[in-house]
Specification:
By secondary structure, this protein is an alpha+beta fold. The protein has five helices and seven strands. The longest helix has 26 residues. The radius of gyration is 19 Å and the shape is globular. The protein binds adenosine-5'-diphosphate (ADP) and magnesium ion. Magnesium ion binds next to α4.
Length: 219
């Protein structure tokens, strides 16, 4: 599967390089600059789809280390803000300075947050407001991601974590299934509440002290 990733990513990197050069040579007033930007965004999107497909086909084993969840979440928020630059969307982050370290795979939890944030961005209509908040509740570190987007019809809720379930024309339906799998491998859980037309709230619970031997290590 890693070979397949290279087969797709290498030509894409080639295209991205050419686009970069073309973009640099365009006069500042050229209308083609917009097209260059579109192509760059589409390349980012293809890369993400390839990552999601590969991650689904062959999950990476967790690499768990004690670390500050505030930092992991902050990195994902910064990346999501970049993705939302062209839209009237604000993403607020409330860290929890008192949060104990959490044993987690920071790359994979980063992926979880990014998937939740991209969904929140895509659900936003008009002025989007997305809130990310870290908290501690009993034996869990908690990450709350809420948006004021279109919401999820109650009859869709049972389906949203299923692989390949999507209501988007260009969705893969893999984001939430990956997110849930990663969180469950950390012995945590994801809860969702949503109100149609008002917004959605995803809450990730990660235990501070999962029994070490019990954290799933894929083979
Ligand atoms: N924040 C959200 N607001 C509204 N709907 C959402 C949100 N997050 C997820 N969904 C719904 O869940 C579906 C599955 O999400 P996901 O697994 O990330 O796949 P994709 O984003 O590719 O559609 C989405 O197509 C959408 O219908
Ligand atoms: Mg998604």
């Amino acid at each position: 599967a890693a070979g397949l990733a290279h087969e797709i990513r290498n030509p894409l990197a080639g295209i991205a390089g050419v686009i970069e050069i073309i973009g640099r040579d365009l006069p500042p007033t050229s209308t083609a600059r917009g097209v260059v930007k579109d192509v760059r965004q589409e390349i980012t999107r293809i890369n993400r789809i390839v990552s999601d497909l590969l991650e689904t086909a062959r999950p990476r084993p967790l690499q768990v280390r004690p670390g500050d969840l505030n930092t992991t979440v902050e990195h994902a928020v910064m990346l999501a803000r970049q993705q939302a630059l062209s839209k009237p969307i604000t993403i607020d982050l409330k860290k929890d300075p008192a949060l104990q370290e959490v044993n987690h795979d920071s790359d994979q939890i980063h992926q979880v947050l990014l998937n939740l944030l991209l969904n929140a961005i895509q659900a936003s209509e008009g002025k989007g407001s997305i809130q990310v908040e870290l908290q501690h509740r009993d034996e869990n570190a908690v990450i709350v991601v809420s948006d004021n987007g279109r919401g999820i019809p109650p009859e869709h809720l049972p389906n949203i974590f299923r692989p390949f379930y999507t209501t988007k024309g260009n969705g893969t339906g893999l984001g939430l299934s990956l997110a849930r799998r990663i969180v469950e491998e950390h012995r945590g859980r994801i809860e969702v509440t949503s109100s149609l037309g008002h917004g959605s709230k995803f809450v990730v619970f990660l235990p501070f002290h999962p029994p070490a031997a019990e954290i799933a290590q894929n083979d």
